[in-house]
Amino acid sequence: MLPDMTVSAATLRRLELASGDLAAACLVAMDEHQPWFRRLAADQRAGVLLVTQTGVANFVAWLGERGETIRLTAEAFRIAPRDLARRLSLRQTVDLVRIATDVFERHLPPLAADESERHALVEGILRFGREIAFAAATVYAGAAETRGAWDARQEALVVDAVVRGPGLDGGSDDALVSRASALGWDPAAAVRVVVGSGAAASPEEPGALRREAARSGRSVLVGVQGNRLIVLVSEPREGAGPIGGLVHGFGPGPVVVGPVAPNLATAHASAREALAGLRAAPGWPDAPRPVDADDLLPERALSGDPAAHRRLVESCVAPLDAAGGELLRTLAGYLEGGGALEACARALFVHPNTVRYRLRRVSDLTGRNPTDPRDALVLRTALVVDRLDVGPSHKE
Predict the structure, then answer these.
(1) Contact 60, 15 (CB under 8 A)
(2) In which order are the strands placed within the sheet that holds 220-225?
């Protein structure tokens, strides 16, 4: 406080005696000027009154400490009920501080003994109101940091639970759903898991991912495990933008997208597929970015992924086996003969048009075109895996 801002002991005493009425006048003004204030519950209004009374008492104490810096302002907020900061936004709190300052300016100067004290009170009110507003901002910033740290821990726990899969006791699903719900996630929404390397040079990557997801109508939960970045991406019930934009939040290297899981409790299956794809992705250097885990089935199979073995047989071999042995024999002859149509026809003692027809049937049943180099690799890997596993096509 500046040396010329002196207030007599008699004036301080009048201020102390008027503090109760001053706090009540503040609440009346708040009720008149802020419609939302009158809708607060009684205990919340009592909390505001407590903060206001403490602020008035601190102001009087500060005026009595000539030459001292303002150091009591945060005390008014420290004694507030714990949930008051959660009930009131920072903007609402600043509005209340502004109203209280206006009430101070109307009611306190008349209590001064002379013009010098009046000037000191007016200047003191302005300084004290400013510091109170800064103290409120500090309290809310601290609450936001605490909430952000808590959210980050919860988010990491959710992502870790999805990666690890359901517990042996079967009770982890409830905890997973509870934590995700606390973060605003819809546990019933379909979800995909996207994995890749983290952008080590960009500490803002989670924020960038969230902004990109919001633009495409999705929600995300982000987790970092070592040098891996794992992102749970919700699938909206209605159409949304492409998922490819999310790759900008990842570091260099492949980005693999797991299949859609019906809900969060089953998302571990998508995570397992995506991580298996990430391990096998170096086997396909020219893979698109992002790449679906299903598109990496040959590389996954070669790396020893049993799920990929099963998926290849189920999607490529089983349909052909069910349609008759001619399709499997034709496909095997065509692929193992280097894709030569006439040579395959001669080996099977059929017309080349018959081979063409059967290859079209293979494409219709499997969704893989034997004449396409990548699809041919998938189909040939499926045949090899089926032979090694003694799959359904080997029934005698």
Answers:
(1) yes
(2) 220-225, 228-235, 190-197, 256-257, 291-292
Q: In whole numbers, what is the pLDDT of the chain averaged over residues?
A: 80
Question: What is the spatial distance between Cα 305 and Cα 393, in angstroms, rounded to a whole number?
Answer: 20
Please give the angle made by the CA atoms of 381, 307 and 373, to the nearest 5 degrees: 25
Binned at pLDDT 50, 70 and 90, residue 148 comes out as: low
Alpha helix (H) ranges present in the chain? 9-33, 42-63, 75-78, 84-87, 90-107, 115-164, 172-182, 205-215, 267-280, 297-302, 306-312, 318-323, 325-336, 341-348, 352-366, 373-389
pTM beyond 0.90 = no
In the prediction, which pLDDT does 82 show? 55
Quick one: which of 236, 392, 234 has its CA closest to 313? 392
What residue type is assigned to position 357 of the chain?
A: Y
Residue type, 271: A
| Residue 231 near residue 205 (C-beta atoms within 8 A) | no
pLDDT at 395: 45
